[in-house]
Amino acid sequence: MVLAEVGRHKGVFLVKLLQAQFLFSRLVPRLIDRAHALGFEVTWGDAYRDPRVFGNIGEKKGYGHPKSAHKQRLAVDLNLFSDGQYLGTTEAHQMLGEWWEQQHPMARWGGRFRDKKGNPASDGNHYSVEFEGVK
Ligand SMILES: [Zn+2]
To answer: If you measure from the C-alpha of residue 67 to the centroid of ligand 1, how many angstroms do you get, rounded to a whole number?
Structure first.
């Protein structure tokens, strides 16, 4: 199923993408466990963004970055809560984000994101695995 959806690519690329997806899916349960261990409750934000709705990699359709790891099943946005209160800031994700980055060399936290000019463009609830430069 995954392979068919990215069928415009071939061979090695597909295998690598699938391996990255497997890796990400292995790491996400630990991320949620860690959030709970830090005293947070979580809900899902965006996980997979279907290219039929959001466009293929590089294509701007709907909201979100044209080159988004969400389109490759390699990102999740987690909503953090503490004492029933939604925590919408990047700072609230800092501890969890820094922990996530240590879990694998390709693990990326949106709290580090910058715009094209190098200015901070935080996306603190975004947790991903980088693949082919997309994070
Ligand atoms: Zn995201």
So the answer is: 11
